[in-house]
Amino acid sequence: MEIIKRKTLKQKPAAxxxxxxxxxxxxxxxxxxxxxxxxxxxxxxxxxxxxPFDLATSVLHYAQGIFEGMKAFxxxxxxxxxxxxxxxxxxxxxxxxxxxxxxxxVDRVQEGLDALLKLEKDWIPxxxxxxxxxxxxxxxxxxxLGVHASTEYLFFIILSPxxxxxxxxxxxxxxxxxxxxxxxxxxxxxxxxxxxxxAASMKAGEIAESKxxxxxxxxxxxxxxxxxxxxxxxxxxxIGGEVVTPALVGSILPGITRKSCIQVLRxxxxxxxERRISIDEVIAGAESGALTEAFGTGTAAVISPxxxxxxxxxxxxxxxxxxGSVTKxxxxxxxxxxxxxxxxxxxxxRIVP
Length: 353
Ligand code: COI
Prior knowledge:
This protein has 8 helices and 17 strands. By secondary structure, it is α+β, with helices and mostly antiparallel strands.
């Protein structure tokens, strides 16, 4: 694979800088092109610089594009580990199928990511709670305005040193259960990690933020009755001692952190249910005290406690608004594996060769 080296204008954040999420980007990126004639080709690593593009490039008009989120963690022995990348590649190819994007060769992009991480190792932040966020993306690049799947695509991977996704770190988040706007319906694109899902969520997100909330808790589009997800996180609730999470009914993103949490919890002896959970059940649980904890899971969000849910103008505090014991245990278990502090019985750490 070609590696094009050139001095770039990127500045590494000084040690101790509050990184936030997705504000700094590294010097290099991986790119690969697709045309109908040549298939996926021209894989290379090149400087991450602004790209010239035609304003009729189809992704700009019809959002035919998908992405992923992964993280690389510096290990105590100085090696670099990526958490379950094979799961992200598999999901990305499923998203590609939904969005009429051609399947990409996993081995070639994994090789590209390894080479990129080797080159950019110095950008991996060292403090606990930070990581190098990996953003693989595919966009439709054919210059045309017809509403058809593109015949040309660009696959790229950019890297960003990140801290916690929420400005307030591990402080419990406040969510508004949304009963007007919807994120996705069955048969829509909610299961795919496609660009438009995130654009569609912004209106309700802005309203929630203007009211002092962190994010939106989406309900199902059909009945506005069942809890789905948060957009950047899957949701879990601890109700009557059982840990429950919305079943993947077709409109919910199948999170890799979600899947990992279910496995860790079951292996530690917790009862974990994947089922439909109505907002009424959540509210009743908050009122009776049966709902002791709620938390979200995601690559960016990691394990984030939820301390309050507003629904139809009433606020329901969960677990006294504090991070609960199951959430704490899971946070320690998952991040312990990611940062190489705990054994990895599942083989979830992929060490960059
Ligand atoms: C992630 O957790 O990686 C996501 O993609 C969620 C969000 C930041 C878009």
